[in-house]
Design a protein that fits this description.
Blueprint: E1 47-51, H1 58-69, E2 84-89, E3 93-95, E4 102-104, E5 107-108, E6 117-119, H2 132-143, E7 147-151, H3 154-160, E8 168-169, H4 176-182, E9 187-188, E10 194-196, E11 200-203, H5 208-221, H6 223-233, H7 244-248, H8 260-267, H9 276-283, H10 287-298, H11 302-319, H12 325-332, H13 337-348, H14 352-359
Parallel strand pairs: 1-2, 1-6, 2-5, 6-7, 7-11, 8-9
Antiparallel strand pairs: 3-4, 10-11
Length: 361
């Protein structure tokens, strides 16, 4: 399960887009973003800055670089980068987690003051206080209205900076009790993959960084762009389920066969009357076996996955300009305009009309 905010975030801060380096070479790693179809605006690229601190996790750094930093010529945009992206650190040399490697050549911590979206550092040693320079940068960004993002233990950074008091957030399940004890004023939601609380977003674990990153892209640019990014990642654009699935279910000794061929087949036929029994027959397994494979591989049920894919298709149809709700409902397999309204609101927090105004052509 994901938690989303229907109000959107309250606008970017006034940071400039120039100056900070975006990668080890010291050169910008993104460039200006193209004009989004949704919540972003302005004459320059929306600037995403990532703070990397001592003992930060390389995996999350790779996730944010992949989602926010790379150019995307496959989108066919005049300017292929979605965001203006940069890395920064409070020290010239940053030793990454467990000393695997040292990061150098990135901008200084002052680059955080140019961020429209600031991604805060995470690390496994949650008991060690964050550097004052990092916490001050987070507070300044929050004060000027920048969007803040924390992946996994990044919620500790946000809470330590004092910006999460009275707010909703999530963190990795193994630190939930410790987080509650240290930050009782934060409304922790430990059973979800991520929490969108408007201008502050948090993800539960390392892999959930991908879920939240794609959610941010969807919120900024719409479902179609997010689906394109997820295809390049070979990762589900929207993954149902929560942390509880990972706590309670052990990894099977013998992995099931991949669902990829079945998913691709179903995605080409979303407007048809697909059923769980039909999907099971297509996969030549029983419905019970199909349920088990979906739970093991996707963390959701066949019906929930199918409904999610249909809502995603409905979003893309609306973004492309289809205004007739009955047509959108029929082509996406949702059946009726009433069902479309209910499922779209549940998934995005928006009515079809509001979604069209925000993401339509």
């Amino acid at each position: 399960m994901t938690q989303e905010n229907s109000q959107g975030w309250p606008g970017a801060g006034a940071g400039a887009s120039g100056g900070a380096a975006g990668g080890p070479s010291g050169e910008p790693s993104g460039g200006a973003a193209g004009e989004p179809s949704g919540g972003l605006s302005g004459g320059r690229g929306h600037r995403v800055v990532v703070i990397v601190d001592e003992n930060s996790n390389p995996f999350e750094l790779g996730c944010v670089t992949e989602i926010f930093g790379l150019q995307r010529p496959e989108l066919g945009r005049e300017r292929p980068a979605l965001y203006d992206f940069a890395l920064c650190s409070p020290e010239p040399r940053t030793l990454m987690r467990d000393g695997f490697f040292t990061l150098t050549g990135v901008a200084g911590i002052e680059a955080a003051d140019t961020a429209d979206t600031l991604i805060v550092p995470n690390r496994p040693d949650t008991e060690v206080p964050r550097r004052p320079a990092v916490l001050d940068a987070v507070r300044r960004a929050h004060a000027r209205g920048a969007r803040l993002v924390g992946f996994c233990s990044g919620a500790f950074t946000l809470a330590e900076a004092g910006v999460l008091d009275g707010r909703r957030a999530t963190a990795h399940w193994q630190w939930a009790d410790d987080f509650r004890a240290r930050f009782p004023a934060v409304r922790l939601e430990p059973d979800v993959l991520f929490v969108d609380d408007g201008d502050i977003l948090t993800a539960a674990g390392s892999a959930a960084a991908l879920d939240l990153g794609l959610h941010i892209v969807r919120r900024d640019f719409g479902a179609e762009v997010a689906v394109s990014v997820s295809r390049r990642l070979v990762f589900a654009a929207h993954r149902d389920g929560g942390q509880r699935q990972f706590v309670e279910r052990p990894v099977p000794d013998v992995p099931d066969e991949s669902l990829a061929p079945l998913l691709a087949w179903a995605q080409e036929r979303l407007g048809e009357p697909l059923t769980v029994a039909g999907l099971a027959a297509r996969a030549a397994v029983s419905p019970a076996t199909l349920h088990r494979r979906f739970r093991a591989q996707l963390g959701t049920t066949p019906l929930a996955w199918l409904n999610g894919e249909r809502v995603g298709l409905a979003c893309r149809l609306i973004e492309r300009g289809e205004e007739r709700l009955d047509v959108v409902a029929r082509r996406s397999g949702l059946g009726s305009a009433a069902n479309l309204r209910a499922r779209l609101r549940r998934a995005t927090g928006l009515t079809p009309t509001a979604y069209r105004h925000r993401f339509g052509p």
